[in-house]
Design goal:
By secondary structure, the chain is of the alpha+beta class. The chain has seven helices and seven strands; from the N terminus they run E-E-H-H-E-H-H-E-E-E-E-H-H-H.
Length: about 210
């Protein structure tokens, strides 16, 4: 995996980590651990700093950080001596985490839209929410191709230097909608019958 010492988060890390072990997938199952990973996108942090940022007890934070560390999702990037105790600073192991399913590299199985929906309520009320939803009937390979392009845009978003006082959320995804309304084939398309030229109002006959 290619590694970059870029800022943010200010330490060397892999560009992408593909999870294939059950314990790695389980490590992402708790929403608090995804919150921790999100905070570590900005910079490495100690358990004490994460506890202050999230308002959780240090013991609780230490447990969840330990789960992420054992799963290889975070790493110790530096330490410092505080009195007689060595304080560890944890950073992400990779910028992007995906799960390998049946040989395919897919996004994590967490429903980030559920988090985004809750987070975006206040922005919607203040008319500060920018969002789109579109539907397109396309082959699976085109969906994967489009997702790769979206993932590149997310990487660019992750690499923006942190500044200012407002944190913005970016939620993207591609998902099948089996029960979405669908138009029947246009006349003469897909039924094997040659119906001749389609006459349109106002069109000449040539």
């Amino acid at each position: 995996m290619e590694r970059h010492p870029e800022v943010p988060p200010g330490h060397e890390l892999s560009d992408r980590l593909v999870l294939s072990r059950a314990d790695q997938v389980r490590a992402l199952a708790h929403p608090f651990r995804t919150t921790v990973l999100g905070l570590l996108t900005e910079r490495a942090a100690s358990v004490a700093e994460l506890a202050v940022a999230t308002g959780r007890p240090k013991g609780t934070v230490a447990h969840h950080v330990g789960v992420l560390h054992r799963a290889g999702l975070v790493q110790v990037v530096r330490t410092r001596r505080v009195r007689a105790v060595e304080e560890r600073f944890y950073g992400r192991a990779a910028r992007t985490v995906t799960i390998a399913v049946d040989g395919h590299d897919l996004p994590t199985d967490q429903n980030d839209f559920a988090v985004a929906a809750a987070e975006s309520l206040a922005a919607d009320e203040q008319r500060e929410l920018w969002s789109f939803i579109r539907h397109a009937r396309i082959p699976p390979e085109r969906a994967e191709e489009f997702w790769t392009r979206i993932r590149d845009l997310v990487k660019e978003f992750d690499r923006i230097p942190r500044s200012g006082d407002t944190t913005y959320g970016l939620a993207v995804g591609i998902y099948p909608v089996p029960d979405h309304p669908r138009l029947p084939p246009a006349r003469g398309e897909g039924d094997g019958e040659d119906r001749g030229p389609v006459r349109r109002r106002g069109a000449g006959t040539g």
